[in-house]
Prior knowledge:
Number of strands: 12
Strand content: 5-15%
Shape: globular
CATH class of the largest domain: Mainly Alpha
CATH topology of the largest domain: Butyryl-CoA Dehydrogenase, subunit A, domain 3
Radius of gyration: 24 Å
Number of helices: 19
Oligomer: single chain
CATH superfamily of the largest domain: Butyryl-CoA Dehydrogenase, subunit A, domain 3
Amino acid sequence: xxxxxxxxxxxxxxxxxxxxxxxxxxxxxxxxxxxxxxxxxxxxxxxxxxxxxxxxxxxxxxxxxxxxxxxxxxxxxxxxxxxxxxxxxxxxxxxxxxxxxxxxxxxxxxxxxxxxxxxxxxxxxxxxxxxxxxxxxxxxxxxxxxxxxxxxxxxxxxxxxxxxxxxxxxxxxxxxxxxxxxxxxxxxxxxxxxxxxxxxxxxxxxxxxxxxxxxxxxxxxxxxxxxxxxxxxxxxxxxxxxxxxxxxxxxxxxxxxxxxxxxxxxxxxxxxxxxxxxxxxxxxxxxxxxxxxxxxxxxxxxxxxxxxxxxxxxxxxxxxxxxxxxxxxxxxxxxxxxxxxxxxxxxxxxxxxxxxxxxxxxxxxxxxxxxxxxxxxxxxxxxxxxxxxxxxxxxxxxxxxxxxxxxxxxxxxxxxxxxxxxxxxxxxxxxxxxxxxxxxxxxxxxxxxxxxxxxxxxxxxxxxxxxxxxxxxxxxxxxxxxxxxxxxxxxxxxxxxxxxxxxxxxxxxxxxxxxxxxxxxxxxxxxxxxxxxxxxxxxxxxxxxxxxxxxxxxxxxxxxxxxxxxxxxxxxxxxxxxxxxxxxxxxxxxxxx
Length: 593
């Protein structure tokens, strides 16, 4: 494998590259200005949002739009928009940090993310200059609220199966849109909608539709399991008359808008889930240190310490993976800008380059949050089932994240689909490393020297990558184009990829913390070693299932031996490591990294 610098890394290239701490961005690298923005977001939630959660969930008239207005006054809505359109022009890492810091805002976080993400970005990236000048400055301040209308009753994951139609009027000046959209976030108050319809029932196209347009109507608010304060309604179009000038992008190219916006949305969802996980974790920790049973705080019990530490480990893994990727995207933006791309086109191209990582992060972040809130309810015991404790709201609100922005199943399938398509187009070389692994299996294993610092951990991650390449390479050779029909197999390999990406991200961050004598570096090492130990078992399990799904006879036996070899890691006392992490959490009274 060749050493790759972050500035030149191909999207998905982490699988066939080696890294050093020096070329890995971590949250410890945030500038003071970024930390101040994070504090502003925290203060906004604590003062303006958290005290009103019950009223937000009851959808008090005008409350959510007023909160978005206040966020706009602080510059939080248009932080990443170009300055020429009224934004602050902040880089992608800062925008990601804002999403994380506001992610613990329950329904408010959903409304905000929908507004300044999928509700605004299609116009920013695909609009004409006239469209941008008309809408973006007002979306940046919150004067206008945005929404995104893609999903229909019979087209969820299959977005291109939409039935909503658009037909040009006889005078050629307008389009008449007819159809129905469902699950539209912010529909109750949004002023501007990005709507997808098929012109003449065939050409999938995006339109800008303003509230108040004749023929546009809305259903009642949906009664949802969670995120109850988020406005979610059906949107109906009956001969909805849209000026021809409101076509967004090119006719018949609406899928380009839909899919590219989702790349950014997936990473932003991970950021918001991370923020929610940190707040839910801290809530659970505070409860554990004050709740007494058998005359001692329950935080003193090993079973509770295990849960608290695992929350930290998974959150640390998510955080390390998220900001590593966010920096890659930010660097790619700079590279594209220097090549002559327009300012509003650079993020789109950068996010497309790292679409694989964005799909992985969506799964990683949403499943991390689900674990944290689930165990948070468990730590609260019976009280966790009561609405008097906010952890119950966190539990309900979390569940949607595995469905939003493409279900986790779709994102797992997309991860492998994109890898294979890029390999076929020559964008990433997977087959040569896969063949090298197959050749290695025929030889005597190299045991190496694990006495050097981090040698054992680096070797483990290199071997995890070999396990993935072995399974994916052999599966493609055996199944060829039929592999797309083997969804279970693809998801096994996707899980192996997710665990490996997290493990490597954690290790690079930990090594960097050690080099810089960070006071919590030892806790980071405990978290990383524990994660690697557990990931080895998960990768072993997924690898065996993958091999058994397509291989037989001698090939199967050889590959199973390979899985065993590549998932053998140094023994580690994870019980004591988790106890040390939990003790550090109690000492710091919160998330320790």
